[in-house]
Amino acid sequence: MGSVGRVVELNTGTKIPLVGLGTAAMNQNPEEIKTAVATALEVGYRHFDTASLYRSECALGDALKDAFLKGLAAREEVFVTTKLWSEDWDDSVSALRTSLKNLQLDYVDLYLIHWPVRLRKGASFPIPKEEDFLPLDLESVWQAMEQCVHLGLTKAIGVSNFSSKKIGDLLSHAKIPPAVNQKKLRDYCSKVNIHVSAWSPLGGAPNAQGSNGVMDNPVIKEIAEKHGKTTAQVTLRWGLEQGISVLPKSYNKGRITQNFQVFDWSLTAEDHSKISRLEQKKANLGLEMTNSTTSPYKSVEELWDGEI
After folding, report:
1. Of the residues 45, 54, 111, 251, which is catalytic?
2. What is the 3-state secondary structure (H, E, C) of 229-261?
3. What pairing do the DSSP bridges indicate for beta strands 157-160 and 110-113?
4. What is the 3-state secondary structure (H, E, C) of 104-173?
5. Confidence band, pLDDT 50/70/90 cuts, at residue 207
6. What is the pTM of this model?
7. Which of 73, 112, 265, 295 to pair with 175, CA 20 to 30 A apart?
8. What is the model's pLDDT at position 206?
9. Is 54 a residue of the active site?
10. Span 271-284, pLDDT tens digits
11. What element of type H or E holds 93?
């Protein structure tokens, strides 16, 4: 259904590559991450997604430093995203400076609020305890995110796991609007000029909420067979043709390569019609961010403002 470029311009003027490498995993191996990033750079990836929570920033930083020294890529050619974890809301600037030290970079291209939840330092993980939750103050934390832009620590700021209602509330007071929402609210975000980036677009692990529902879907398998592509390639291409960027995570050399081979072919209108009829659901609902006593959200319905 038409050609798709390799980058798209954000509302800041910064260009984001449409295919990136995710680095979230349940059991991180730094050497495995470094090898995967080196492979991705050789293949053509110029977008890398990390977060302080993932514990992959240091390995990604090592891999990028090595690539820059070898001349495989220049810093200005690479787009790096990291995220503010819920324990660090009280000092977003310091948290980003720590991430930059881990990444061995002077700035990141995109800094996201990971979840609309504020936790105390040292909160239990992966399931916070009742005493770990602190009152929300989205306006203050966004002001701190804006300060990160003013200080030159990031080129753009955005959110992750936010409902359209929460984004709307944020826009009512933001001086710098979010450039990206790393969750699938495409229709709403397009109306307010916010780019959507799909985290874990293939639906599987790295987390306990992961599912193989996408990769095992018979409709997508049928479309893949027709085009001579993998189910992952069809899924990623569908995302690109929806106007979103995609962040598949793989440390397998073959799959890293295959996941980038999505630019020189397209899906048909019939393919889109079939995929659009498939049931859609969120893989990671954030149940651990809710409780009936101390969390600002008593249920996942409240967390997502009914958008589940």
Report:
1. 54
2. CCHHHHHHHHHHHCCCEEECCCCCHHHHHHHHC
3. parallel
4. CCCCECEEEECCCCCECCCCCCCCCCHHHECCCCHHHHHHHHHHHHHCCCECCEEEECCCHHHHHHHHCC
5. very low
6. 0.94
7. 295
8. 45
9. yes
10. 999 998 888 766 68
11. helix 92-103
